[in-house]
Request: fold
Amino acid sequence: MLKKRLAALTVVVMTAGVIGYQALAEEEPKTIPQSKPEQQTAEIEKSPVKREGIKPIVHKEEEFVLLDSLQKKKAQYENELKIQEEGIVPARIKIPGMDIDTGVIPVGLLDNGEMQVPEETDITGWYDRGVKPGARGNAVIAGHVDSKEGPAIFFYLKDIEIGETITIFDENGKEKTFKVKAKESYKNEEAPIEKIFGSSSERNLNLITCTGTFNYDEHLYPDRLVIYTELVEEEENDPYPAPNAPGNVEYDLGSVSWHSVAEDDIIGYRVYKKEAEGKEFEHIASISSHERKNFYDENAEPGSSYYVASVNIAGKESEKSQIVQAD
Reply:
């Protein structure tokens, strides 16, 4: 018979202070002249008059203006980031090496302060007063080792190997995969509550069940088995890596132009400039992806250098394009 309650734990709730901020007043952007009509004769075309580019749209709240399709993609990406930070509410746990694939239900505390476990022996319980799997901290899932009828869901958990994977799914199929990094057995009264349930800068998932020799006099197992796991980083499957740099960058009489990048998650382009005697490039303009790929620099001088970088919905910037120089 399995003892249905785990060691008592103390839940410490930390309240984060909220730091206010003061919005900074924005300067009025410089007025950039609109494009002039194309010259009608070859003589005028060869004249030294500056040909002006397209004035970029002024964005007071956002750097780039997004069309509906990109706005939806950006919102989806931001939701993914939120899930990464907050974790997921577990609905199912799968451990391929243990042939475990079962449900997860939320559990809390009993009146005496001990953690609850599910009544059913073929499912597991997630401690819902702690963190969600995938969030920073120690998420905890517990399961029975056996019952009067025989082995329960975590009967073979003691045989799990270091490096094996455990995958948690939410009700929508979103998943988080963890890798076993350690397993320890403790006497009930000696289990390190803070290590198992406490705060952490890492994204951990700890599995708990009973172990040891069953005590028929007290009708309980004397020990607790804890499987410590850590989140497998998802950067290898990054859906939005840094984009490619723009091509065909040209300079002509104050205007910098380029070709768009053929990727459907590009939200805009940044134009950088270095003065003739300058040491560093500085960001001088932002052009949204649906605007004309052209920028006119009214302060262009001979010897100034320019390059353009593309930006995607994840805010990642490409490498520099080829550098062009003002005549």
Q: What stands out?
A: The chain is about 10% helix and 30% strand.
